[in-house]
Amino acid sequence: MIASSDFQGWARVNQARVETALQKLLPAAHLAPARLHEAMRYAVLGGGKRVRPLLAYAAGELTGGGGERVSAAAAAVELIHAYSLVHDDLPCMDDDVLRRGKPTVHVQYDEATALLVGDSLQSLAFHALAQMPPASEAPGAERIGDRARQLEMVELLAQASGSRGMAGGQAIDLASVGKTLELPELEFMHIHKTGALIRAAVLLGAYCGENLNRAECDTLDHFAKNIGLAFQVVDDVLDAEASTATLGKTAGKDAQHNKPTYVSILGVTRAKHLAEELHSNAQQALRPFGAKALRLKQLADFVVQREF
Ligand code: GRG
């Protein structure tokens, strides 16, 4: 039995790895345009749970992918996530003043800067994937294989973050305010808004190692989809139950904005049961991978047990 402190140690090491990768990718705050670069660093560095990068590292461990390639993938996903938070907090969207325990980017800087921060972080995410180091230093065929894989990764992240993924989910979310949604409609929204990027984190991490066969890919995908949805169900419960101080963002906003959520549709108790069911599906999907999936298993536990 692995002690939970072991997971915490692993998480700390990998949070530090992605922080270093992000530090290197983000332009220095003194470079022109300095205000934009400073705001980009403010939005990204030193905050957040880094769940998506951790999923990428854990999936990388599953397929034997380590080193700087998986850090590039982890950073790329986190940059997309950070961009989405900056834009989501804008007055034209969720209009929030607190994120990761500090003033949101448009409050700390201004709206136009926040818009440009999000745009620039999105571009930087694809830059991170495009400049990913090769898996081996060997010239020739292996490098060509790396490049083909990299293109697949760019395609995957583009799909996950665009109108058929996260941005599309956000559009549905904005259109749903004040409406009553059926459970399948809510699920469709969250598979896109939250689930798509979490799925991308897992798959991009896995792509940094050895190829999985078709059945293994499908199984990992099943894990990723279930844990992505579980993440959102738990997020809805926390929004209803946790405090602003614990969350580092304004609690209770879903009800305040009359948004359909798992809590508004199912109630807290059934929403918690649903999170458990999705968690169990995710854990089952990992079984064929055995000990190689240890970190993904622990992350799945963290996603449903988290308190912030
Ligand atoms: C603006 C294109 C665009 C999309 C925004 C992700 C998103 C879509 C909005 C964020 C609002 C929200 C609360 C979504 C629910 C799930 C979620 C993504 C929570 C925040 O992620 P955490 O908990 O945040 O991983 P940290 O700060 O820990 O990284």
Topology:
Elements: H1 4-25, H2 34-44, H3 51-62, H4 67-88, E1 98-99, E2 102-103, H5 105-108, H6 111-130, H7 141-161, H8 166-176, H9 183-207, H10 214-241, H11 244-247, H12 253-256, H13 262-266, H14 268-286, H15 294-305
Helix pairs in contact: 1-4, 2-6, 3-4, 3-9, 3-15, 4-6, 4-9, 7-9, 8-9, 9-10, 10-14, 10-15, 14-15
The protein binds geranylgeranyl diphosphate.
Geranylgeranyl diphosphate binds at residues 48-49, 51, 81, 84-85, 87-88, 100, 166-167, 170, 193-194, 232, 235.
Q: Could you name the ranges where pLDDT drops below 50 across 5 or more consecutive residues?
A: none
**Biggest sheet, in brief?**
2 strands, antiparallel
Task: Spell out the helices and strands N to C.
Answer: HHHHEEHHHHHHHHHHH
Radius of gyration: 19 Å
- The span between the termini is 26 Å
Count every beta strand, where a strand is a DSSP E run of 2 or more residues. 2
What is the residue-averaged pLDDT?
94
Helix content: over 70%
Tell me the fraction of residues in β-strands, as a range.
Answer: under 5%
Secondary structural class:
mainly alpha
Task: Please describe what this structure looks like.
With 308 residues, the protein is an all-alpha fold. It is built from 15 helices and 2 strands. A two-stranded antiparallel sheet has the order 1-2. The structure holds geranylgeranyl diphosphate. Geranylgeranyl diphosphate binds next to helix 4, helix 8, helix 9 and helix 10. The site of geranylgeranyl diphosphate (GRG) has 16 residues, from helix 4, helix 8, helix 9 and helix 10.
